[in-house]
Amino acid sequence: MKIIALFGACKARWRRWPKIIRIFSTTVAASVFAITLWGSLSLQQLDSVLLKGDSRLYTVAKGAKAKDVLMQLASEPVSSFWSVIWLKIHPEFSQIKAGTYKIEKGWNVKHALQVFVSGKEAVFSVTLVEGQRIEDWLVTLSKAPYLEQPLTPDDLISLRSEFNIEQDNIEGWFLPETYSYTVGTTSREILRRAHADMKSYLDKNWKNRDKSLPYASAYDALIMASIIEKETAQATERPRIASVFVNRLNKKMKLQTDPTVIYGVKDRYDGNIRRSDLEDDNPYNTYVINGLPPTPIAMPSKAAIKAALHPDKTNYLYFVAKGGGAHKFSTSLAEHNNAVKRYVLEQ
């Protein structure tokens, strides 16, 4: 009864107010209710609004504001005013970082903003294959998606200078690996990493080498590793291949390895090694020169470097391919000639 009486008293007082005040008060109350409802619905919308479009890359520009990004990505129109309020309520979504990100269809805007705040950009990769030449790698890098500033053979001189490579030919000085990168990375940056990785790996393993090896420097080992890389694709054979070349160096025998001949004649090689190639007087022709060629002939893998620094202990001086990627190893020329007759001439 007291509540009813109190309500009646309030109603009576309300009626005693001037009509204009009652109208104004009602309008204000209705407006406050409408704004509150609108705000509540707008904030709920921002909590769940989806991204527009399909899965794609999205670039957050340097200096971009979270509010503008939010409004641009939302699949339905959202209020600029309530976007600001929503970000005040959720300040953890405001500090977005510039970069290019992968956003997925079905995400809500809140999820995308979380990714932009984390700075975890879209990552791509390029595989630089062992046994290939630097020119081959330049082609690979030029075709890698979102990798900028492709290089040409004319850039090799500047690379040599930038990376402080002493040799005129930079072949072999880069480690074959799969390298990850983000949008905006340049080909030069990938090669800088590959060079640093090669230097680090070669230096570390040179210190732990077999001390009886006939190499004057770690660079000699790198040259040997490149030859081993080109001679066999079978990991288990690499230390045995290495032993053959080490044994020949120790005996002052010419290495007589075909991959160096091919490297020396360059573009003249058409798939067949001719007598003229074997007799060609160039610094890479190990049928003519004594010892190692002046530089690596390819990019050697970690496994090839390990084989060069830790060859098997054998008496082998010769080997010939016998099919399937394997080789027949021999200790004497007579044995080797028989193997050549069996595996090459009679095929």
Q: In angstroms, what separates the terminal alpha carbons?
A: 115 Å
Strand order of the largest sheet: 1-2
What is the helix content?
40-55%
Shape: elongated
**How many domain regions?**
3
Q: How many helices does DSSP assign?
A: 14
> What does the radius of gyration come to?
36 Å
Mean pLDDT: 87
**Major sheet, described briefly?**
2 strands, antiparallel
Describe this entry's structure for a reader.
The protein folds into three domains: 2-118, no CATH class; 124-203, no CATH class; 210-345, no CATH class. 49% of the residues lie in helices and 9% in strands. A hairpin with a 2-residue loop joins strand 5 and strand 6. It is mostly helical and 347 residues long. The longest helix is centred in the first third of the chain and has 30 residues, at 19-48. It contains 14 helices and six strands. It has a two-stranded antiparallel sheet. It has a two-stranded antiparallel ribbon with strand order 3-4. Strands 5-6 form a two-stranded antiparallel sheet.
Q: Could you write a compact summary of the structure shown?
A:
This protein has 347 residues and is mainly α. It is 49% helix and 9% strand. A two-stranded antiparallel sheet has the order 1-2. Strands 3-4 form a two-stranded antiparallel ribbon. It has a two-stranded antiparallel sheet with strand order 5-6.
